[in-house]
Amino acid sequence: MALSRLDSLYMAVVSDHSKSPHHHGVIEGVEALQLNNPTCGDVIALSVKFDGDVIEDIAFAGDGCTISTASSSMMTDVVIGKTTKEALALANLFSEMVQGQQNPDYEKLGEAEFMAGVSKFPQRVKCATLAWNALKKSIQRHEEETA
C-alpha cells in the first residue's frame, strides 16, 4: 500500500525531529522537571528558563521513543518566546489534537501539527503528550514559586 504524500511528509518530519532533536540537553542553573510514561518507559527531564512569564529558553533530555522525542523537539520549537498563558493554550490544543478532536487553530502548533496522526494510535498518545505535560507542570511550578 502506497503512502500518501502527507503520510510521507509526516514520517519525514517526525523522523528528522527524532534523529536530530531541537533544544536537546539541559540548561545550566535550571532545575529540570522529570516525568515518565510508565506504559512504555519514556522519560523526559524538561528544563524551562523563564523571564517573568515568558519562556526564555527550554531544553529536554531523557530517553524516549521516536514519537516522544519528536514531540518534545517540536514542542520546544513552538513554545520558546511564548508567555506561560500562550504555552499552556498550545499544550491544551496539542492534547485535544492527538485525541482526535478537530480545531482550525492546530496550525498554531507549527510542525507539531504533524503529530495529529497519533490520534489513530491511542496507545501512542501518552508518548506524544509526555513533553507537553511536563511543560504544563513546569509552568505550574514556576507560577507557584513566583506567586
TrEMBL record:
CDD domains: IscU_like. It comes from the Bacteria. InterPro entries: NIF_FeS_clus_asmbl_NifU_N. Residues 10-127 form the NIF system FeS cluster assembly NifU N-terminal domain. It holds the Pfam family NifU_N. PANTHER family: IRON-SULFUR CLUSTER ASSEMBLY ENZYME NIFU HOMOLOG. This is Nitrogen fixation NifU-like protein. It comes from Streptococcus saliviloxodontae.
